[in-house]
């Protein structure tokens, strides 16, 4: 039995794909999966479901939701239920391969190691496999800190995978083929300097210096008008290198220099957790 969190919650068996349609039961199961093999207290579950406005019989309601989950899992898994009671709450006992979230994090770590070892083809494949696990954006839908923190952290890992996937492609010499993807990324993440830098480098290596400089101007205008900021030193140095035609090969660029400015999505500073 496989549990999938990276998109709508799904339980996948050899025979079927099971969706949880009751929102509060889905919240309970999601929290238990996010904290797999850890104890989640009844108090924490109440906070995730109702925030700071729980009903009077919240504890009894949580017991009902847990019973519903156990019954559903037992029916689908021939009586075997990985949901255990552990004071002061409950825990889902899973192996690493039971959960797409665990596989995603493992592939992301693997890709990072391969990138820093200079194994760009293998790194590209690892990041591509990690991102293939995402079926839809993971967005906060509950009121508690566990799910909100999870959604923020896992989106940051996904964004890092996208960034390093593009970087691996550039280091493999696929400059032209990454240009259209990077145009889409800077449109989707207008404050994320690393994508602008990658687009500038891809255009420069494709003999399109004027367009590369135009990308820098676009970034500077957006940062100035929206946030009152200037591009960071790495992007300013890249602009100077393009102006003077002194930008070195992509593969010579340190990985840590993708962007030295705080990365951001949708105008919010990047959270380095996760």
Taken as a percent bin, the fraction of beta residues is 5-15%
Distance between the termini: 26 Å
Q: Any idea what the CATH architecture of the largest domain is?
A: Alpha Horseshoe
Mean pLDDT equals: 90
Computed Rg: 22 Å
Number of strands: 8
What is the CATH class designation of the largest domain? Mainly Alpha
Helical run tally: 10
Query: How would you write the strand order of the largest sheet?
Result: 1-2-3
Protein structure class: mainly alpha
Estimate percent helicity.
55-70%
Shape: elongated
Q: Encode the helix/strand succession as letters.
A: EEEHEHHEEHHHHHHHEE
Which homologous superfamily in CATH is the superfamily of the largest domain? Tetratricopeptide repeat domain
Number of domains: 2
Please summarize the sheet with the most strands. Answer: 3 strands, antiparallel
**What is the fold-level CATH name, i.e. the topology of the largest domain?**
Serine Threonine Protein Phosphatase 5, Tetratricopeptide repeat
Layout of helices and strands, plus pairs?
Elements: E1 2-4, E2 10-12, E3 17-19, H1 23-34, E4 40-41, H2 42-50, H3 58-76, E5 83-86, E6 89-92, H4 100-116, H5 120-132, H6 145-171, H7 175-188, H8 193-205, H9 209-227, H10 233-243, E7 264-265, E8 268-269
Antiparallel strand pairs: 1-2, 2-3, 4-6, 5-6, 7-8
